[in-house]
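Handout, page 2. Input:
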Amino acid sequence: MNWIKKGLIYVPNKDFDWQQDRAIAPVCDLISDNVLRIYFSSRDMKGRSTPIYLDTNPEFPEKIISICGNPILNFGPQGSFDDNGILSSSIVNNGNDKYLYYVGWNPRVNVSYHLSIGLAISKNGGDFEKYSDGPILDRSPKEPFFNTAPFVLKESEDDWKMWYVSCTGWKMINNYPEPLYNVKFAQSNDGINWKREAIVAIETDVFAEAVGKPFVFKEDGIYKMIYSYRNSVEYRTNPEKSYRLGYAESENGINWVRKDNLIGIKFSSDGWDSIMMEYASSYIFKGKRYLIYNGNGFGESGFGYAILE
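Output:
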């Protein structure tokens, strides 16, 4: 692969109370030949994320058409899994409905936070209603820490696949707990009830101590995954340790071979994606594959795009 960078699409501003910082985790949904909808999350003055979307030109995504004026989901009731943060993660068209899989965020005492996976459903493509007050995936006997950042692929009415991030533990770095995580696999026949057996799809290694936010597409019978990975030390500021994009392939969606050297996109020498690149999403328009991704600061610098050569 060889991606040609095209620059920024959107930079967060402070026009709204709920958008004081970041435009994180873009999720692409090609609505029509004229409209690409990009879901993402922004933080309010208290640092709590909520999801919104913008509509833009799918051929030239920097030509934004409109931005929704309010978050599409609100915080859950106090004490629930999403009472302090909601981040969009994956969108699936299911008949006339849209299934938005999202991450619920809670603060913690002994570690920084807890994450779990929720679902919201839209009948009209704009107004979403939470499927439940509780998560559809959370900790389990085999996964005792947290689960987050799912990507869901519907292959048929009763064949749904999910690749999700699973925390493997917390590592104390300079007296601060840092999460480590890999990517795991789950299956469902309805997109709501998931069977998981702690199957690891992408494992960590000496450098990639955290592997996050998968995006999967199927091409020529091969499953292809773009994901983010980082070290556990200095990953917020040091480009030698920070998030970058990786790539893997699989014949069955379960057993993967990492081919990070084929990803075909690197940090810029300066600017918005010179320190980190992460949280990618992708779509095809007029025969070209587009890549949408975050850059420096976990969405502080906004998100931009590249086109596969």
